[in-house]
Amino acid sequence: MSSFAGGPDARISTALIDYFSGSIDINAFKSAVESHKSPAFRCFAYFHAMWYAYLTGATDAVNSFYEPLLKFDKFTCPSALQFAQKFRLQATASRTTTPLTPAGPSAGASSLLTEASALYRKKHYDEAAQKYQQLLQTQQKSDDAYVGLTRAYLAKNKLQEARDTISKGLASADSPPMHIASGEVLFREGKLQEAEAEWV
To answer: Is 69 within 8 Å of 43 (Cβ atoms)?
Structure first.
């Protein structure tokens, strides 16, 4: 399968990255997903977003992504549907309604991380990458920095740099957000099965 260098595949991939970073809302994300003609890719995108919502305890977002998944038959993406049901049940049982908080600055984040995230949201990807790189010089195990830098590279279609960054990050600071970002890289590389393995 070829790499997603352009067309609707690239738009969905970008929408996933932008949604995880907080640059677009759920409605904008769904609109981008629905523009794709392939049921398999739409299912993949919805489940990827649902899994991230599950990890962050956002029950409302989990349910929002679960509904469109029900439109797909069991042959389109069987493992995604299986795990989606599991995530929905567990998310509902937890009764958590915490808003989705994409990977990015937290209350105690450094000023560099805050600046980098702000630059990314403004689509100043090169400047954001520089800030994330500066942060990694002092916080070598910052998953926020690795994830942010990976997404900045993806936004610039620098797939090799993104791959190198997330591989290094996983080796030093393994965490759920890192695996999500790794899945995003694999998704952009056209490796759906490998990407799925990162988020199930």
So the answer is: yes
Mean pLDDT of 168-177: 87
Q: How far is CA 151 from CA 28, 42, 78, in A?
A: 18, 20, 28
Buried b (16+ CB within 10 A) or exposed e, 46-70: bbbbbbbbbbbbbbebbebbbebbe
Residue 20's H or E segment, with its range, is: helix 7-21
Tell me how many degrees the CA angle 170-197-178 measures, rounded to the nearest 5. Answer: 25
| pLDDT tens-place string over residues 103-149 | 444 443 468 888 988 898 888 999 999 999 999 988 888 888 999 99
Q: Read off the amino acid at residue 162.
A: A
Q: What is the CATH number of domain 111-198?
A: 1.25.40.10
CB-based contacts of 38: which residues, under 8 Å, 6+ apart?
none
Tokens 């995604």 label which residue? 80
Average pLDDT, the chain: 77
Q: What is the pTM of this model?
A: 0.60
Between the CA of residue 125 and those of 1, 155, 156, 195, what are the distances in Å? 27, 7, 7, 23
